[in-house]
Amino acid sequence: MLTDILILIAGFILLIKGADYLVDGSSRLARRFGVPPLVIGLTIVAFGTSAPELIVNILAAVQGATDITVGNIIGSNLANIGLIVGLTAFLYPLKIQGSTIKKEIPFMLLSGLVLLAAAMDKAFNMGTDNFLSRNDGITFLLIFSVFIYYLIDEIQESRQQKTTEKKEFAEAYPNKDHSSVKLTFLVLGGLLAVLLGGKLTVDNAVNIASALGISQMLIGVTIVAIGTSLPELTTSIIAAYKKHSDIAVGNLVGSNIFNTLLILGISAIIRPIEFLSAWYLDLIIMLVFSLIILLFAITHKQIIKRWEGGVLLTAYLMYIIVAISRG
What we know:
The protein is 81% helix and 2% strand. By secondary structure, the protein is mostly helical.
């Protein structure tokens, strides 16, 4: 067990330092090229921290274990909204940009509603079972392409401020290497450390819990569920600590959009997925959490305050308790 504990500690160190490099490199790279940090959070950081879900779901779809795919995505999205936004805002109140309130969060809500509609074949008299078909997967990818088009448009608009951004960048980092290649390696190295640290942490936490006689069910809904969200968690907390709320929020909102539209879209195209009845409650809770975030951001001058983070965190813990009771 001592070896597991030491590797667990090493995993945490990799997570924290990796997130530090990822956030620092992302924010500097954004300013280097005059791209809004929010866009970096919605793309590079979000896609990178969603890589574990992408790999797990593609492998599950290829192997025919489709019962894992949707549960993995909904569970990850719930953790992003309830656990990570809640804990991050509780530690460091989150400033939400106007465009995020008007566009990105509503798009995240839309992606959840599209998933709900696609999973209701019986209700629409389109079949005897509820499936995410290949056509649904194609639809998800088409909607995702609209999101990518929007991001490209945001980048093009930001080019008008490129000169100003570069000047601010040089003033902010007067003694640091501005090489885009080195900044890119900083981002990729940080991302790799976060992903590796997350895996080491989860694997060895499970080993320790098993050695202590903790049930597999409890391990699954706590250590593994939270552990797969460790890349997003550490990255968002470090980003908020460094006053980069746009990267923190972009990471989480972007990750949920990537998870729902891109990952489930690819998974459904590889192999149609039966939507289990137990997932409807989780999906509805996910949509409610998304709506709560939107309401919190609208009602308090675009800031999710500490007490609101506490509300989200408490609601997520209640969900975990319900999940445990359901078995």
